[in-house]
Amino acid sequence: MVNGVVFVVAVLTWSLAGPAFATCACQCVEGVPRTACTNVDEARAEPNACGANGQAIACAMPPALEQPPARYVAPDGAADCRARRLWDPHTNAYSVVAKVCDLAPAAAGG
What is the DSSP-derived secondary structure letter of residue 87? Predict the structure, then answer.
């Protein structure tokens, strides 16, 4: 994981009318505030949405998982993709399940 940044690759189950964020936003992911973006380019461009401008977010802890989260093949620029629960303020629960990936470390060189 790079700077606590994750991105949502594809929504598997979504109880909201639209996405929780348009680009990058501070989002509760499995009880931890994380910068969540919709793709790798956005995540690299805005890696510090959590904590930017004095923003703080407190996340409730979700109930324990009954089984390990599903794993997915990571797209270019990403690593460790898995199903994760996101906080849904409309239901006040971790009712959004999305495919979430960490940013892969940027390649050295130039």
Answer: E
Of 12, 26, 2, nearest in space to 100 by CA: 12
Q: How many angstroms separate the CA atoms of 100 and 15, rounded?
A: 17
**Cα of 35 vs its chain's centroid, Å:** 6
What would the pLDDT profile of 26-37 be if each residue is shown by its tens digit? Answer: 889 999 888 888
In angstroms and rounded to an integer, the radius of gyration of the C-alpha atoms of the chain is 14
Give the three-class secondary structure for 44: helix
Catalogue the E-assigned strands of the chain: 5-13, 25-29, 32-37, 71-72, 78-88, 93-103
**Could you tell me which residues are beta bridge partners of residue 22?**
none
Tokens read off for 24: 């990058």
In the predicted model, residues of the chain with pLDDT beneath 50 are 1-3, 9-21, 109-110
pTM: 0.72
Of the candidates 84, 75, 64, which has an alpha carbon nearest to the alpha carbon of residue 104? 75
Mean pLDDT of the chain: 76
